Amino acid sequence: MADTEMEIDPPDTADTADATSTDPKAGDARTAAGATAVRSIEGWIIIVTNIHEEANEEDIHDLFGEYGEIKNMHLNLDRRTGYVKGYTLIEYATLDEAKAAVKDANGQELLEQKLTVDFAFVRPPPKGQGQNRDRGRRDDRGRGRGRSRSPGRDGEDLED
């Protein structure tokens, strides 16, 4: 199995208004933090958090089914208690359906708890933008430390 190569579809370069393509409209899909949402392999996945522990799949399906056809939904349960863990992943086929769910359902109440809805997958910022994590944590030689220092080794010479 390790010897076989995976077939990868070439990216669609046509500038169409198809909601399932990755580039043309994906820039319009932004998370609450301003990151660009990206499509999963089969559709657009949103994450819903702050779900009441006694909510059931039907409650969530009724609420989010208003925004479009739900292709897939994962409502994780606690093994010990059997209650909902507090989040669910919902997959829509089109970006428009997912954007509508994020926009309209964010802040709605379900069983007296305010839901938080956002895109589950986002594109990381381009390299070279943002701050360097190690800035300000460099030693006097100009290199960042790879690991923490041992106790008693604050630049002192050790005795043999």
Automatic annotation (TrEMBL):
- Where is this chain's protein located in or outside the cell? Cytoplasm; Nucleus
Q: Biased composition, Basic and acidic residues: where in the chain?
A: 132-143, 151-160
- Gene Ontology CC: cytoplasm; nucleus
| Compositional bias segments (type: Low complexity) | 13-31
Domain RRM, chain residue ranges per copy: 44-122
A Pfam family found in this protein is RRM_1
- Which GO MF terms are attached to this record? mRNA binding
Q: Which Gene Ontology BP terms does the record give? A: RNA processing
* Protein name, as recorded: RRM domain-containing protein
State the species of origin.
Lophiotrema nucula
